[in-house]
Design brief:
alpha+beta, 58% helix, 14% strand, Arc Repressor Mutant, subunit A, two-stranded antiparallel sheet, elongated
Length: 104
Amino acid sequence: METIGRREEQILLAVGSLGDKAYLVSIKKFLSRIQGKTLSIGAVHIPLRRLERAGFVRSYFGDASPVRGGRRKKIYSLTEKAVKILEENKRVHDLLWAKYDSYG
């Protein structure tokens, strides 16, 4: 199975959480709010492009928004491949945390 890094996992989780509101700026704001620090657009955009090329996310252009001067948002969604790797990562994390907690 392929592996993904921590930032990629966070981005996938943000995309899944935001649903049809998962576009670049909303993903950046979501992660910044949760992490309590401001992320740059590049810190999200570069891994997001990589995830799309690797088949973890797909994208489409939404309708034009008058608030954004008529520009369309590129909306991202998870693929089945992303869901599978997120579930596997959670399974492994849960097992590791359970083992770690048993030593505390």
